[in-house]
Amino acid sequence: MISPSFAGPAVFPRPFETGLGRLVAEFGLRPVEYATTRAHATPAERAADVNAAFADPSVKAVFASIGGEDQITVLPYLDCEVIRANPKPFFGMSDNTSLLLYLWNTGIVGYHGGLIMTTFGRPHGISPLSADSVRAALFGPREYELRPAPEFKTVDQDWAAEETWRTPPPMEPGTGWIWHRPDRVVEGVSWGGCVEILAWHLMADSEIQEDPAAYDGCVLFLETSEEMPPGTEIYRTLRNMGERGLLRRFPALLWGRPKTWAFDRRNEPAERARYATEQREAVLRALAEYAPGTMAVFDVDFGHTDPQLTLPYGGRIRVDGPARRISVTY
């Protein structure tokens, strides 16, 4: 257990401790906390925990407690040789896109998903779809078919409120996936993550391969956070990827179901639907201009909404357009 970004367990211990308990009771794992897991720490101190977790032969997998917003500052302190010599599964998403990018460039497959506080510490139990995919990822290797969520949640509950732990989370009926140009089968190595974090790396020229051909044939997967960037920002980020020669390298794109509600933007259903449509239209506009041949699937449940499917990062993803199926290899 590490907190390479925000020390969420120090602020909200209940979902973290709930998640640890489920790791033991439902998955048979033994959690080991590193020094900064519940402590606000410097980037160098957090990096030391990452290095130590990978170096320790008794540790079989590494989990991030939660995301954050400054993990890009941790990367310069990582020991690439130690991590490369001790490959193991790392589970994280959101700001952990930074570490997943780093591992991809190091040749280590990571896992987008499986945060302790949100996936495992979810009030009233782990979502069955989340539990099934993270279990498959943990105890693979195996091929695993993703399924559209029968219900989902985008409205958050306050971890500090006792009512949250007494009342089941508010779920909405699933809407299925939306397919664009599903006329082929694409299988490739996965790359992507949270759009906002990826944009920071593009701006900093950090962890992005200099030759765009490094991404030829990869399956791109992207999702957005609770900051809910407007459609114009999404379009501009993808446009910049297009101008860099990146976007057209990906023959398939998986787009996560957008987060459409936050505590500082409590959108009503109509506003949530309008935002999701605006985001999808921004993506399609960028694809039309820079990657017209790319197949895309929208509203796949691997992002900041619930449930959270776990995707391999640097592993294989197969997108079968004619059959409308998506499978991953853990």
UniProtKB/TrEMBL annotation:
Q: Which residues form the LD-carboxypeptidase N-terminal domain?
A: 2-113
Tagged with keyword Transcription? no
Q: Name one GO molecular function term.
A: hydrolase activity
- Residue intervals passing through the bilayer: none
Q: Which Pfam families match?
A: Peptidase_S66, Peptidase_S66C
Keywords (alphabetical) are: Hydrolase
Q: Where is the LD-carboxypeptidase C-terminal domain?
A: 187-319
The family database entries (Gene3D superfamilies) matched by this protein are listed as:
Class I glutamine amidotransferase-like, LD-carboxypeptidase A C-terminal domain-like
Entry's CDD domains?
Answer: Peptidase_S66_mccF_like
Which protein family is it in? Answer: Belongs to the peptidase S66 family.
Q: What is this protein called?
A: Microcin C7 self-immunity protein MccF
